[in-house]
Amino acid sequence: xxxxxxxxxxxxxxxxxxxxxxxxxxxxxxxxxxxxxxxxxxxxxxxxxxxxxxxxxxxxxxxxxxxxxxxxxxxxxxxxxxxxxxxxxxxxxxxxxxxxxxxxxxxxxxxxxxxxxxxxxxxxxxxxxxxxxxxxxxxxxxxxxxxxxxxxxxxxxxxxxxxxxxxxxxxxxxxxxxxxxxxxxxxxxxxxxxxxxxxxxxxxxxxxxxxxxxxxxxxxxxxxxxxxxxxxxxxxxxxxxxxxxxxxxxxxxxxxxxxxxxxxxxxxxxxx
Length: 272
Fold this sequence. Notes:
The protein is α+β, with helices and mostly antiparallel strands. Helix content is 34%, strand content 28%. It has 2 domains: 24-171, Fervidobacterium nodosum Rt17-B1 like (Heat Shock Protein 90, 2-Layer Sandwich); 174-270, Actin, Chain A, domain 4, CATH 3.90.640.20. The protein contains 8 helices and 9 strands. The protein starts with a helix and ends with a helix.
């Protein structure tokens, strides 16, 4: 093999390696943090327990899409002010801000003259973010947050974000369903709640339960899987706190009459 052929072979190999390294879906990086910040030197007076475990998108073949997805995720995880920060500065800045807020909110109460000596100020903030579905077309992401700031109990919430990786746009119900879909989708959600839960099935009618039935309707809080669309209602959203969160799994077959033709999920539905 002559020198020119060797150089050509090396060039082709380099191109193939480059193409092979270009991710067909979003690649993420795990960021983790855990610490406890005491309000004063007397550790019995309370502390802020802060835990962060999140995946952040760092690589994709289309940089504009990557930037769009990452910005929206960071804004929902931490807040709009953190979007413009370098990746390695986001968590340190967020931690410092949380600690400052904790001290500013609790130190004045701790220093109140009539405060009982045994009273403490314990706060907790646990933040998790994880990719749930990821291929070359769709990226679904879940954010789970637990916050306790005193009182009877803390509060767990979950939100989901779904992205069209062709455009970087966040998908909404209007992108997936035909116009005037709400009434039919509401019926499907309520039916699936009963079908998936034996205790509810035993009642036979949601109106006989403690759920606030009028509140059970599409809320935009869903994630995508290969089997269907999954809705989640957070505590207090459709019922008393003790009922917790409610997840409703809806197979694509149940949605076929209200899914918009040409919607971004058609390839998943066709493979079912």
